[in-house]
Please model this.
Amino acid sequence: MDISDQQIRWLTGVVGLLAAVITGTGEFLLHFDPQARFTDGLAFFEGISETRSNWGHFIGVLGAPLYAVGAYHIYLMLRSANHRWAFILFIVMAYGCALGGVWMGSRASISAIVNAPQYADLGHLVALYDLRYESLLNVTRFGILAISIIYIWLTASGRSDYPKWMAFFNPIILLLFSFAVWLAVPDIGKFMMPIALNIGFAIFFALSLFHVHRLRTDTKEPTDA
Model:
């Protein structure tokens, strides 16, 4: 049985949503701090057990590559507006997610360094970690900004398979949403900050899947005999 274009959109959107849920679970285990010390250097790692870090490491790293499938879902939804730029968005997002996966794989190690005895003597290792991994995260952040701009442009054009209002629900705005909640309601925001980008993508893919479902209903594709 051939897989229709609508079914591919649905399946890739589901995988994108799973990427956000699985990666977000892993990152939450790696980063959550009841005291919300997210602006105090690496203090939020203090007290995280090795077992919790290991679970977060493997769940997060194994979930991160699924974002590439989610990137393909976005490409499918935007290509009718501009095939070339939609494909560029796919490449940039997939590449950024790959680097994000590398960064994710480093977090358990920096947590171990922070919680090691004689932490004050490990400043060089922390600096080396920042050079090797935090710089990669900056590339990922730039990629998120780039794909948000392309996404807004193509969606707002009205030629994509998304309604124009979906341009508002872009990764940058959804990321800022978690920061806004943290600033306004810290007791809730502290649960969101460790996985802010994953929450944003979870909201995005949920909305995208809702729209794919509406498209499937509107077109009323015939079933195979």
Observations:
- The mean pLDDT is 88.
- The chain is about 70% helix and 0% strand.
- The two ends are 10 Å apart (CA to CA).
- The first helix runs from residue 5 to 31.
